[in-house]
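Sample intake — GntR family transcriptional regulator
Collected from: Streptosporangium carneum
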Amino acid sequence: MAVTDAAIDRIKEMILTGELAPGSRLPKEADLAERLGLSRNSLREAVRALALINVLDVRQGDGTYVTSLEPRLLLDAMAFVVDFHQDDTALQFFQIRRILEPEATAMAATRMTDAEITGLREILAGLPEDPSVEQLVVNDLEFHRRIAAGSGNPVLCSLIESLSGPTTRARIWRGLSRENAMGRTREQHTAICDAIAARQPDVARAWATVHVAGVEEWLRNALA
């Protein structure tokens, strides 16, 4: 195992055992390096690596802290990585969405408050009658983000949000290439919202599946 990897594992162990709690400050570099039996250079490399994935927060002139370790923060790193997907892997991201989003939508049908559902309808109403592709994409992203948040599961919400970046380009392709894509999207969003408002999780799940699977099928054909 590389020395830097060993240093990362030791800091990780300190966090997992509770020795370093979320929000706590790491000991001074010299003290921590001596305690872990590492060179200061190896420790610095480990700290940089853990800061990149939002496990540590390096504050100039103040010290290094463990972050809150909230799922949203940690999964930001995954969102950064998946942004580098190639076009032929976009289909794989849609397949993951087809697994996650229908379940999140079903959960939202039982957990979203009336005020949150009203907000969801306002998102739909805010889309212009003849929107540009860019307006449609922004509206679509916010609609799905609200539903994911409405599932009440922060981890699930963060996973879905992290997959939104790679699919944005495909949404634009669909808007540009598929006849009546905007009309279909508007109708399906309305059906999903109506099912959530009616507190019908099975119906909401079914419409979400139809919605994501439709884009997935178009993308499969386009790539073929």
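Post-analysis note: Strands lie at 56-59, 63-66.
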